[in-house]
Design a protein that fits this description.
Elements: H1 4-30, E1 39-41, H2 45-48, H3 55-62, E2 70-72, H4 79-113
Antiparallel strand pairs: 1-2
Helix pairs in contact: 1-4
């Protein structure tokens, strides 16, 4: 059954993932010349990869204080790749905020119709 609140929770979780990826990418760029720095990344496919498992279940199984960020040892940081991933992440954020805005608009409509 469709629930606006359930949908809002899913979008909120997605926005949290996007924010954590943004922090990881920013950290990679900031530490590009730091010796011994280990590149960090978040792979959305780990959380959204299978249709059989709902997003909430996968997130609750995998989220922890630092479990969400994968550390890639011996991987050189390519600034062009990091910037491209920042742009992709920005697009995902835009889509998520538009979805959240649509959910809020639907809720406002229901409230106004009920008056």
């Amino acid at each position: 059954m469709y629930s606006t609140l359930n949908s809002m929770g899913k979008v909120s979780l997605m926005m949290d993932l996007i924010a954590q990826k943004q922090r990881a990418l920013g950290s990679n760029l900031a530490n590009i010349d730091t010796p011994g720095y280990v590149r960090r990344n978040i792979n959305f496919a780990d959380y959204l990869g299978t249709i059989n498992n709902p997003l909430e279940t996968k997130l609750s199984e995998k989220l922890g204080p630092s479990a969400i960020i994968e550390e890639k040892t011996y991987e050189e940081i390519d600034p062009a790749n990091e910037l491209m991933e920042l742009q992709e992440n920005s697009l995902l954020y835009t889509m998520a905020t538009r979805r959240m805005s649509n959910i809020i608009t639907q809720m406002k409509t229901v409230i106004n119709v009920g008056k």
